[in-house]
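How it folds
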Amino acid sequence: MEYHLIGEIPIGCRIDSVYFNDLSEFNKIVTIKGSKGIRCEISEGFRFRFNSTQPVIPNNSCEILDPNSGLEISFILWDFFEFAWPSNNLLILDSTIDLDVMIRYSNYFYKGGVNINFVNLKGIDLNILVNDSLLIEYWMIFYINCIDCQFNFYNQKKPERSCFDILESNLIKIQSFFQLSQANQVTTFYLEYCEFKTPLCPLIFKSSYIYFLYISGLANTFYKKRFFEISNETFDSLDSNIQVLNLDKLENIDIDSKILNALVFGSLKENKHPRIC
């Protein structure tokens, strides 16, 4: 059996079990025993850094030197990166984490493309990349999964709760969560049991290219309040490109214009109808 030595895992990360898209059940994200990816736990001062020069081929048997035991560990390494925030950690996803470096790393090690998990994310800056041209030059993404995340948006640590806030900040360009994929990619965004505490401004989706958008776990019950709504402000040339919308595992949720915003989901008309489960 052929093995491919990984070399050095990114600093502050480790090989571990990660959430995995179970293709046998199209709308399901699970943890599969033995499915290993690169997992990075976010703490104060975390920055994605690596020094490795030895390539690895995902989906094949690999081995790595365990720094604790000094033994080589063999396993199947899948093409998943997982960024996990501890439950009591209020740090957000912003440019200080250096996703730019992760893009270079993923291109070097994963020529066919990658999958990215964000777990327990508490907030997202409106500009999470320093050099967004890297997306076009280097990155191919299959899945972007956000599990138990809170979609609170910020600009340089300042909360951006409305379209007025975003316009007042005079941002030249939004390069945030929904802008992580490009027009030449068939990328699925899967949002599972996420919280949207305030209606999202349509500008959050400006220049987004999302082939499949899955939102799972919305609820309006006595025990759970988990809504997804988009505010009704209008803008010229929003250029939001979302081809398929799947709403799954809904509890007492009305499918209306607060969800199916015409500006954000205008591309659904070209794909006949949104897919709603």
In short: The chain has three helices and 16 strands.
